[in-house]
Specification:
This protein is of the alpha+beta class and 121 residues long. The protein contains 2 helices and 5 strands; from the N terminus they run E-H-E-E-H-E-E.
Amino acid sequence: MPTEIPEGFVPAPINNPFSDLIGPVLYRPFEDGIHIGLRAEKRHLNPGGVVHGGLLMMLVDDLMGATVYTGLGNEPKATVSLNSDFLSAAREDDWIEGVGEITRRTQTLIFVRAQLQVGDR
């Protein structure tokens, strides 16, 4: 069972009690933003034996928030809309990693694209 964490990933620099319920959710800063990562455990699986889509959506929401926070600083923000496409399943022991990018900003909204993957999936 793989348990290693890729180099550079650390716990979140800010307290997030909700993420603590499913984590550890880990972060790695990079030159233009942040990566997020989680090692999938048995407790993250749905009855079909793959990582629950709700967990993946929570990771994406957390990733988008971290992307905006890293890019724009500490000002109030909230998710207005979150749409997703699931292209492949994650399984127990998979390292799920994601990266986000700010694609557009208006006076009142910030648009972010985020992608999770396992290896090259």
